[in-house]
Automatic annotation (TrEMBL):
<protein>
    <submittedName>
        <fullName>Nitroreductase</fullName>
    </submittedName>
</protein>
<dbReference type="InterPro" id="IPR000415">
    <property type="entry name" value="Nitroreductase-like"/>
</dbReference>
<keyword id="KW-0285">Flavoprotein</keyword>
<dbReference type="Pfam" id="PF00881">
    <property type="entry name" value="Nitroreductase"/>
</dbReference>
<feature type="domain" description="Nitroreductase">
    <location>
        <begin position="7"/>
        <end position="161"/>
    </location>
</feature>
<comment type="similarity">
    <text>Belongs to the flavin oxidoreductase frp family.</text>
</comment>
<dbReference type="GO" id="GO:0016491">
    <property type="term" value="F:oxidoreductase activity"/>
</dbReference>
<dbReference type="InterPro" id="IPR029479">
    <property type="entry name" value="Nitroreductase"/>
</dbReference>
<keyword id="KW-0560">Oxidoreductase</keyword>
<keyword id="KW-0288">FMN</keyword>
<dbReference type="InterPro" id="IPR016446">
    <property type="entry name" value="Flavin_OxRdtase_Frp"/>
</dbReference>
Amino acid sequence: MDAIELLKNRRSCRNFSDIPIDDEVLDDILDVGLNAASGGNTQPCTIIKIRDKDKKSKLKDLLGQNFIEKCDIVLVFLLDFYKQKRWCELNSAPYGRNRSFLEFIISLEDVMCVAQSIECACTLKGIGSVYLGTPNLRYEEIKELLELPKLTIPILAMCLGNIKGKLNTRKKLHKEAVIFEEKYKKLSDDEIERYYGEKYQNSNTFINDKNSYLIDELCNIASTVNGKDFADKVRANIENNGYINPAQKLFGLHYNPIQMIGMNQWIWNFFKEQGFDFLDETFHINRLDVK
């Protein structure tokens, strides 16, 4: 199978064997990440490679994924302005990236380019990998565990290891729902229903005596976020269908909007403590004057 076919058939791996990754293979994979695209070639990414069993166990407890202990290596990807700022200080250069939201976005994109390049390299080398987004829920704990300095933010982690068993396939949205020609195509309601219906078919949660509490839970969330009238509409929808549909389950229960929105202040506070200040209004520049 050629490289394109391998990448088209990539799968996340959560079941790892006890066989460690060959050091030469790992070096090749990491070298691909080091050569990833970067805005201005500034490379604001640091990777912490974790193989220590005790540290992986602590990460498992923090991030709540049992397979973390099973994998060979955990990579933690940091957005790192600490090294850049210190380099500028040592060379008498001005530095303000930590006070610019635009620079943060660009640097976040850079970190993701590194991570995705490594994920692709794993696929090409036959190494299993899976992203972990839960570091975003454990900023302070990861900061302490990994001894992170100011101006660093853990963005995500990735488990790597040799694959055990067969990887599960997951349905993706149809190409026509994702790739538009020349301009944005506003899909019709029927198209949206069809494309998402194809992806999440057979994913309804049918209501029974054991899970009927989910109706009240979902309606309470809907009422808090969108008001009582909308919550009544949600309840009527569920009772009429006899099930909680995939959209309700995914964006109402799994990614609970009360929790997601409720973490805004905590995330903002942690970023400020780490030296990031995106609301700095010291300067006012017309963006069209920026070359």
